[in-house]
Structure formats: structure tokens, C-alpha cells
Amino acid sequence: MTPKTPPGQTRERVYSFVRDRLLAGSPPSVREVQEAFSFKAVESARAHLTALVKEGKLLKEGSKARAYRLPDTAAYEEPPVQVPLLGRVPAGPLSEAIEDIESYLPVRSKFRGAELFALRVEGDSMRDAGILDGDVVIVQRQQTADPGDIIVAMIDGEATVKTLFVEGRRIELRPQNPEYAPIVPGPTELSVLGKVLEVRRHLDENPFRAALTRYGASSSSGGQGAIA
User: Fold this and answer.
1) Which of 8, 18, 58, 105 has CA atoms 20 to 30 A from the CA of 94?
2) The whole model's pTM is what?
3) Please, what is the end-to-end C-alpha distance for the chain in angstroms?
């Protein structure tokens, strides 16, 4: 006879399932919880959810079908905004921006009401600002910006991401990497496409991954360890 999973372990798995769905902006119904864990009765799912509410891990809003929320999210919080990922923008030498929609990304609803788009960064000229090759930047579309803002700019039909500096009538797009020189556009050459609000990164695409892998291979004879 197969031993039953202890109730505490099952409840923790239910919590993880509901939490992940809530963070993705897709609250599950009680029946969806039942189906996800193959409970024979919907009341079994409801009992776990009720226990999680009593433990303070979840909040319940009235009698709605998808009434459960995380305690650190306000009851009125709306689902994430879906932002189009348009293509690539260089953080290095200028090149033409690609505006084909690759996919859509969920963005926190605090940006709701703003016109947003996302671009994938190519190059490392913004390295010291924490923007690396392969990162995705979330951009608020706007035609003006303040000095010090990190912006996506268009110069003669080519796009780049840089920090905006203004000295008198002189405008500079400064990289955050000493290996690159500032771009000084003429007064009619520059168009601001938007301001960078957020940076996203997948660790398996980190440009330092290959270097760390090589380091691990070269030092494997000296013992094992972990880098964090």
C-alpha cells in the first residue's frame, strides 16, 4: 500500500502552486487546485486553502471563484500588464532597431497606464549601470527625458540605449563602460524613444557564465567549490 503524503507536505505544495499562479497573474479557482492535485473531492482542495488562510499565507476575498491573494498584495491590485518585446537595441555601436514583436512580458501593474515596450539589449556599453548583453529592458515610451535618465534613443534611424547628459546646448549619450566613447548627436539627429524603467535577466544567458565555466574547468584539479 502506497503511503499517504503527510498533510503538511501536501498543504505546502498547494501553497506553492497557488503562489506561483498568483505571481503569474492567474489566480486559480478551488476546482483548479483540486484538479492539479487529483483530490477526489473539491472540499479537500477547499480545506487546504482554508487552512492556508488561517496560517496567514493566503488572503480570501469574499465568495468570488478566484478569491485568494497573497498577503503582501493589496486586494485591489490588478493583474500584470502585458508588454510587447519588440526586438533588440544595442548597448554598444549603433545598429538599426528591430521592431518585430517576439513575445509579451508580464510587468507589475504599478506601471499601468503608461505606454510600455520591451527591448533586448545587445552589447556591453551599459555594463557598469547593471545592463548586460542579453538583458531585457522595460521602457516607458516618451519623447523627452531628464539628464541622468537611461534612455532608448534613435539617431538617424538607428537605436541605442545610453545615459542622457546635457551640458548647456551640448547633448551626450554616455555609455557606462570606459571602453566606449560618448555619442554626441547634432541638435536635429536625436529622438528619444523612451526611458528605461526596469531590467530583466535570465541567469543562463549571463555573459559571465562561459567565463565561470572555463574557470571551473581549469581549476577542477584543485578541488570542488561553489561560486555565488
Assistant:
1) 105
2) 0.56
3) 43
